[in-house]
Task: structure prediction
Amino acid sequence: MRSACIIAALVAVAAAAPAPSPQLIDIDGVEAAPDPVLVSAPLDVTTDKPLKKRDATLTKRDGNCAPQPAGSGPVPTPDTADAFTSSSVLQTIAQNAPTPDGYSLVFQNKDGSLSASKYMGLHTLTAFDTLQCASLCDQANDCEAFNMYIERDPSVDPNANDCPNPPSLTNYKCTLWGAPVSVEEANNKGQWRDSFHVVITGSNAYNKATPPDPIDGFTGPTELGGAINAPLDNGKNTYMGYKYFPFSQTQGYTPSTCATSCKAQTAYNSRHPNADGTYQTCSFFNAYVLSQNAIPQGLYCSLYSKTWAPSYATNHGQYRGSDRYTVSRSYSYSLAQ
Result:
């Protein structure tokens, strides 16, 4: 895919792409779009809210040995990074954590936190409480996933001369995400702060399994087993093309984005009618997450002039060479009459 410096909005406002026949995933179009933006939650902080733009002039500073907020978890003996990541006590905590209702387990007990799309913030909890983390996700608009993990942090702010490798403390971290996540994204392994090694263990992630929200002016959502692949309707092609939105800090899994595209396509068609004055109205769309090699890439919106039943959701993915493209979180909406 091209560099993420290409403005994603250009992908969204263009006229809908020509219809492949049948409605296969337009891999060429997807690969021409910007890459998804992957973000890691900061390490060694107790709370964090994502910034739309960070100050590139900031430089890393050394610490001042100031005491840090007390941790809530046990500290392994000996107090080393290796003992932390191999601690059976900490791993058992993660393995015994319940999967909250309305969520599905993505991975469990990994040694890395997420580097994923649409980071929505970090919370430090007093226990490895997946139910509380899920509640925080439920309270956050458009939250689609969360990551609960155990982090080894310094007890004081490390300084190269006065406290380069202080005793550790153990924190329970909860991060929220606005796009589905995958095990392939569990690759934030930690960092060094002077001679202190921040590491992670017991990392669990969960994707929301409940349907997306209703959308004003549309009926649905209707859950689909794949992407819609509609036949001709009495010789007429009802497929109106697609819009693709790569995941980023401003774009998550939001089917309402597809609804906006559907209405915008109708408006565009009305301004550019056929010679006889007729034009296609977008009355149905299919919103789903497109993943490449199991890593979520973006929101794919297929637009139609007719409502199609779930039995037509027969496109479950495609291959391009060794790359596998798959469909998930597929739902349809119909324009309300």
Remarks:
- Residues 255-271 form the longest helix (17 residues).
